[in-house]
Request: fold
Amino acid sequence: MMTALLIGLGAAAQGITGMGFGLLCAPVLIESFGAAEGVRQVVLLSLLLNLLFLSREFRLVRPVSALGLLLPALVVTPFLKTVLKQADPRLLLLVAGSLTVGSAGFLAFGLRLPWLRGAVGAGVAGVVSAAMNVAGGLAGPAVALYAVNTSWPPQAVRPTLQCYGALLNTVTLLSLGFPTLHASQLGALVIGSCVGLLTVNRMPRTIAQRVVLALAGAGGVLVMVRALT
Reply:
C-alpha cells in the first residue's frame, strides 16, 4: 500500500515539477525489492512518465542542452553497470539513500556553482546523473542542478528534463535489464500522472517542490538507517 501511494505521489510530483519520482520512490522500491530489482523498477517507471509528459510539451524541449547532457552519460553508463554489479547490496542501499538525501538538500538550498556551466558543467552533470541512475534510479537531481546553474528558461526545464530522462532511462534499462512490474504499481502511476496533469497549472511549483524534497529526504534517511542496521 505504501509503495503504491509513493508511486502515485511521485508521478504527480513529476508532472508538476519535472522531477521527483525517483527521489520519492527509489528508497522504498529498493528497500522492498532489493537494490538491483528496485533500481530497474524505478528506471522503467520513470521512463513511462518521461514519455507521457514529454508527449505534451515536446515543442519546448532544448534539444542541444539535452544532447550535451546525454552524450557523457551514455559513455559511462555501461562501465558503471559493470562496476556496480559487483558491489555489496547493502552498500548500494547506503549509496542510494545518501544520494537521495544529498540531492534533496542541494536542490532545497538552490545550490549554484557558476563554474559548472557550459560544456564542462554538462559533462559533469551527465556523468553524475548516469552514476546516480545506475546506482539508485536518480537521474534527475544532477541535471536539475545544472538547469538551475545555467538559468534555463522556466518553461523549458520540465520538458527538457523529460527528454533527457527518457533517453538516459532507455539506455540504462538496456544495460541493466527489464524488471517485473505489478498491476498496483502501474495503476498508481496512472492515477498519479492524471493528478499531476490536472494540477500542473494550479499548484505553485515552489510549494510542490518543497513537499517532494522533504519526503525524499525522509525516505533517503530511512534507507540509510536500514542499510546500516
Observations:
- The chain has a mean pLDDT of 82.
- Residues 2-228 form one domain.
- Residues 19 and 140 are 6 Å apart (CA to CA).
- The chain is about 80% helix and 0% strand.
